[in-house]
Design goal:
six-stranded antiparallel sheet; 10 helices; single chain; 370 residues; alpha/beta
């Protein structure tokens, strides 16, 4: 199934709130400002340890309070988990699984997977290459602990190398100090490139299958520069860019600089895509993310749709619902879907209410945060 219930305390504008979920479809509806998206945000936090809307977790604490607490019940086959997280305005976060404290987010990753589709996610197709790198690193980390650990180690080495570059630039260190970091970052950089290349190939295949079911006239390609996965070549390139790296205090070569882009029918989506094309491409990318998780873990993730049907025209909404239904029919597994909307009519028109046997609805009213 997925999540069965969530409890919020002093989270965003929710003083105390409980919501229970169907293993099929749950619709959370209400006017803007009623806290619908905050419920999805809380589910995301229990699954990945952080918000999908902000990196400043202090912003999630209700005004006038010093912390928030979220807890959720999850069910996968016959295994039950109770996960809770508390964040204090001192900057400390505490996470527990079944009452036992864990050391950090790494113990949450991959445990109860979610895929979120929200307006904030549109930067994946519209934003800078960094946004797409983060998207793929997050997706691949969810399905591979090795990938997650490699990204973490690479980023840690990158910060350390940059710190040394700044020391050298400011005359507080010798050039020789960089060589040891070059050796380490070359090893992890080559490994990260290799892992990322393999996962992008798998993801691209699943994306192609999704697109074929949705509209055979569409072609979406993931373009990234092919890198030689050779440690010696990597070290030579670091040596070549070293003078500029010292001048800027930043490492300018490596996987953190990959320019990943999307082509829609052979045209750069970011540059030439219309609003409608960006929207539907994001939907298809997210469905491919969902299928990758299913392919690698054996279970569909919970699908969080934030006001989706108000942003797609009726024809596209109906095609999306038909696509979701076909995925469930093929695998014989239900996709737990949680939707927010300001207008139930948009959801009803999409046809999704008639595709799910088990449906729950929750109406939220706008309240002041006192």
């Amino acid at each position: 199934m997925g999540i069965t219930k969530i409890s919020l305390s002093y989270f965003r504008n929710h003083k105390q709130k409980e919501v229970d979920f169907s293993n099929g479809l749950t619709v959370i509806w209400g006017e803007n400002g009623s806290g619908k998206t905050s419920v999805l945000e809380a589910i995301h936090m229990l699954s990945l340890g952080k918000s999908f809307r902000t990196n400043r977790q202090k912003n999630l604490i209700m005004d006038g309070r010093d912390s928030f607490v979220i807890s959720g019940d999850f069910l996968k086959e016959k295994t039950k988990d109770k996960i809770s997280t508390q964040y204090k305005n001192t900057g400390k976060q505490f996470i527990k699984i079944n009452g036992k404290a864990i050391s950090g987010r790494k113990d949450l990753i991959g445990r109860n997977n979610v895929v979120v589709l929200s307006p904030e996610e549109q930067s994946i197709t519209k934003g800078a290459p960094e946004t797409r790198r983060r998207f793929f690193d997050k997706v691949f980390s969810v399905v591979s602990l090795d990938y997650f650990r490699t990204v973490q180690k690479y980023n840690r080495l990158l910060r350390q190398r940059n710190a040394v570059l700044n020391k050298i630039r400011d005359g507080r260190g010798a050039v020789q100090e960089i060589y040891g970091w070059d050796e380490q970052i070359a090893t992890e950089g080559v490994k990260l490139w290799s892992l990322r290349s393999g996962f992008i190939k798998t993801y691209s295949g699943l994306l192609g299958s999704i697109i074929k079911k949705y509209d055979e006239s569409l072609i979406i390609q993931i373009i990234t520069k092919k890198q030689k996965k050779d440690r010696g070549v990597y070290l030579e390139q670091l040596k070549e860019t070293q003078p500029y790296d010292i001048k800027t205090g930043r490492t300018t070569f490596g996987p953190h600089r990959d320019n990943i882009s999307f082509l829609l029918n052979k045209k750069n989506l970011r540059t030439y895509g219309s609003q409608g094309e960006h929207k539907i491409c994001l939907v298809l990318l997210k469905l491919a993310e969902m299928c990758l998780i299913k392919d690698k873990t054996g279970f569909f993730p919970t699908l969080l749709l934030d006001d989706l049907f108000s942003k797609l025209d009726l024809a596209r909404s109906e095609k999306l619902v038909a696509l979701l239904s076909s995925l469930e029919t093929e695998t014989r597994d239900p996709v737990q879907t949680i939707i927010t909307t300001t207008d139930m009519i948009d959801v009803e028109k999409s046809g999704i209410l008639y595709k799910n046997k088990q449906t729950k609805t929750h109406h939220l009213e706008r309240k002041c945060s006192t």
